[in-house]
Design a protein that fits this description.
Strand order of the largest sheet: 1-3-2
Shape: globular
Oligomer: single chain
Number of helices: 7
Largest sheet: 3 strands, antiparallel
Distance between the termini: 32 Å
Length: about 190
């Protein structure tokens, strides 16, 4: 019906790109948090252990490591640019499973690698779009067994914002969705 052709792509194709994106995310967030929080800030009891651990990690990252992560991000961005020579848009799951309860991603520990791994397991393709700079949007597209929305992510080449909105409109019309409860006073 809509003139689109679906081309399946193997998830393994994106493993290296996702890893490079996750590494870049880690280095940028860690270094920036280290830059923003001084010793006095980090000693405050109101700073969550995870935030403290990320900032401390950022203080230990060598410039050559940060640059290497940035170069990996550039290579991932180039690979994404090349991908869009084959396809117009990329559809991925936004989340690997239904939204967890509030507090599921505890910040009361200092295991940064575990924390990032949990995020990656939860939203495996989110960092790919964020780190490579390509436009992306997510929309609800189905429900889990408990009636919670399951979002998909639509990713496109640089400058394709209008195309992404158009594809989102087609998908939303094919499977309309609305909140089960009023949100902010709206029906």
């Amino acid at each position: 019906g809509t003139g689109h052709r679906i081309v399946p792509l193997r998830a393994e194709r994106f493993t290296g790109l996702r890893q490079a994106s996750a590494r870049l995310f880690d280095r940028i967030v860690s270094v920036n948090l280290a830059r923003l929080l001084n010793d006095e800030d980090l000693s405050r009891p109101s700073i969550e252990p995870m935030s403290r651990a990320v900032a401390e990690r950022g203080r230990r990252i060598a410039g050559v490591d940060l640059q290497s992560a940035e170069l990996g991000g550039v290579a991932a961005a180039h690979a994404m640019w090349r991908l869009f020579e084959e396809v117009d848009v990329l559809l991925t799951p936004m989340l690997a499973f239904a939204p967890p309860a509030i507090g599921a991603f505890a910040m009361d520990h200092g295991d940064v690698d575990l924390h990032w791994a949990r995020f990656d397991a939860f939203a495996p393709y989110a960092m790919l779009a964020n780190a490579t700079g390509v436009p992306a949007l997510s929309i609800p597209h189905g429900l889990d067994g408990d009636g919670l929305p399951l979002p998909i992510q639509i990713v496109g080449p640089i400058g394709s914002d209008g195309l992404l909105l158009s594809v989102a409109r087609v998908l939303e019309r094919a499977r309309p969705w609305s909140f089960a409860l009023p949100v902010a006073g709206l029906p």
